[in-house]
Amino acid sequence: MVKKILVVGGVAGGASAAARCRRLSEEDEIIMFEKGPHVSFSNCSLPYYLSGTVARVEDLLLMTPEKFRGQYNIDARVRHEVISIDRENRQVEVRDLENGETYRESYDKLILSPGARPVVPPIPGMEKANVFTVRNVVDIEKLKQAIDRIGPTRVTIVGGGFIGIEVAENLVEAGQSVSLVEAAPQILAQFDDEMVQILHKELLDQGVDLVVGDRVEAFDTDTVVLSSGRRISSEVVVLSIGVQPESELAGKAGLALSEAGFIKVDHNYRTADPDIYAVGDAIEVYFPLSGKYGSLALAGPAQRQARAVADHIHGIPVHYGGYIGSSVVKVFGYNAASTGLNERQLREMGASFEHVMIVPKDKVGLMPDSEELHFKILFEKPTGRILGAQAIGRGNVDKRIDVIATAISAKASVDQLKHLELCYAPPFGSAKDVVNMAGYVASNILHGTFQQVRVNDIRKLHDAGAFILDVREQEEWDAGHLLRAHHVPLSELRQRLDEIPTDQPVYVHCRSGQRSYSAVCALQHRGYDQVFNVSGGYLGICFYEYFRDKTLDRPPIVSAYDFQ
C-alpha cells in the first residue's frame, strides 16, 4: 500500500528516516520539511570550521534538496516550517518562510525530528554583549564572521559540555585567547572527578582560562561578570550551556511530553498518536542501567532511531534495548571517551558498586608512540556486572570504550573481561590489553584479593600523617614524590620489611599501580592485613592535584609533578 510520509526536520534523524523510508519503498511519497536553509549538515563538525580544519562552510553540507530529489526522489523543502498538526484529519499546516504563505499537507505517517535548541537564559545585560550560540551552519558562520570582523582580544565560552570544549579548542587553534566558564565544579559531567582533572590540566596547559564552580551573573559592554565578582574582558561570548527540546509543535498537538518537555515515545518510537513518530534530540529515551528515562543528544542514537522508525512504518520488527550513552570527545592532545553510568549517577541511585582505575600503556611500551591510558571501570557489587567506563589518553581510547559498551549491552561481568580475545600486535596494543587488565584488577577487587584507595583520598591521608609507601625506584623518587611518603623500592622491599609498620594501615603506590599491586601482594603474604593499593598511582595523584593546586594557589603535596 502506497503511503504518504511527512518528515519534520531535515538534519540527522529526519534525513536518515526519510532516506531509509525510500530504501524500503520506491512507491511512497516522502516530503521533508526543514525550517532552516540547509538539510543534512554535519552539526557535530561545526566547531571545526572555526579553526579551518573544515576549510569552507559549504563543506559542512552533506546533502542539498536537489540531491535528495535526484538520489532519493524525496521532496526536501527548506525554509518551510510546520506550525501545527491536525491529528484528526492527519494534516499539517506549513509556513513557507520565503513568502509567508501557509498551506496544508496530508499524511499517512508523520515523523518528528525537530531537534533541540541552545539554552539562552535571560542574563542581565545580554543586549550589551556579542552573544552567539552554535546549533547549525548559519550559527557557526555568524560566529566566524563576527570574530573576523571584531578581532576580539578574548572569546568567552559559557558551558563546558561537548560543544563548549570543541569551540574552545578550535578557537585556540585559530589563535584566539579563550576563557571557558563552567558553573559546575568540572567540565564534561559524564566523567568522574579524578578522571576529568586530566582534561582540566590539558585546557590550562593549552592556554585556556578555565573557570569552574563559577557562573555568569551578567554582561556589560565587552565584559562578562561572574557570580564570584570576577570580570572577564571579552568582546565575543559563545553560550553553550545546554539544549532544550524543540517540542512545542508536539505539545500543541496534544502529544505526551515528559516533565522536562521531551516527546514521549514507545519502544517503536511512536508518540501518543500511532501515526506520529519522533526521533532525535527532542525525544525521551530509556536507560536500562539506571531504570530511568531521560534525554540523549547524540547523533549515533538519532541515526538508529531514524532507521527503526522507517522499519516499523514498513512492517519490519524493531528491537528497543534502551541506551547506555557512549561518547567520545577530543580535548587538544587528549581523547576522552565514556560509556554507561558514572559515580555521581550510581550514588544518586543508591547502587552498590566498586571501581577500578588503572594507567597502563595503550600499546607495547617499546613502541615510540605508546602512551599512558587512564582507564576506569565501574561495576556492581556483588555481581560484577559492568555499569560504566571512562578512558582518557593521547592514543586510541574509543576502541576500549567501544569494547566495554558492547560488554554492557551483553550484560557482561568484569570476570568476563579477562577472557576477551582482542587484537594484538605491538603497534596496536599489548598482549594483555587495557580491557583485559581492567578485568583482572576488577575481578581481584570483586573477590577481595586486595584493598585499594583512590587518588581522591591521598591529600587527606597525606595531611593526616598516614603511612604512604612509595615503591618506585630511586631515580623516580628523586624526580618527584609525595612530601611525607616513605620510600622503599620494590626491588628492596623484602629486605627492608622492618621499615614498614604492622600496627597501622599502609598505603602503597608506584607510578601507575602495577608494581604497587605486587608490593601489596607480597606484604599480605608476609602477614600485613591493613595494606591498600593506591588506584592510579603517582601519575594519577599528580593529575588529580595539579589543576586545583594551580588555580586555588594551594601548597602541593608533591615535590614535583610527573606527567611524562
Descriptive keywords:
564 residues, alpha/beta, FAD/NAD(P)-binding domain, five-stranded parallel β-sheet, 30 strands, redox-active center
Structure summarized in a few sentences:
Helices cover 28% and strands 24% of the residues.
Would you kindly provide a written description of the structure presented here, covering whatever features stand out?
By secondary structure, this protein is an alpha/beta fold. The radius of gyration is 27 Å and the shape is globular. It folds into 4 domains: 4-117 and 244-313, FAD/NAD(P)-binding domain (3-Layer(bba) Sandwich), CATH 3.50.50.60; 126-241, FAD/NAD(P)-binding domain; 327-449, FAD/NAD(P)-binding domain (3-Layer(bba) Sandwich); 452-552, Rhodanese-like domain (Oxidized Rhodanese, domain 1). It has a 5-stranded parallel beta sheet with strand order 3-2-1-7-18. Strands 9-16-10-11-12 form a 5-stranded parallel beta sheet, covered by helices on one side. The termini are far apart. It contains 16 helices and 30 strands. A hairpin with a 5-residue loop joins strand 5 (91-96) and strand 6 (102-106). Helix 1 (12-24) packs parallel to helix 8 (299-313) and helix 6 (193-205) crosses helix 16 (537-552). The chain is 28% helix and 24% strand.
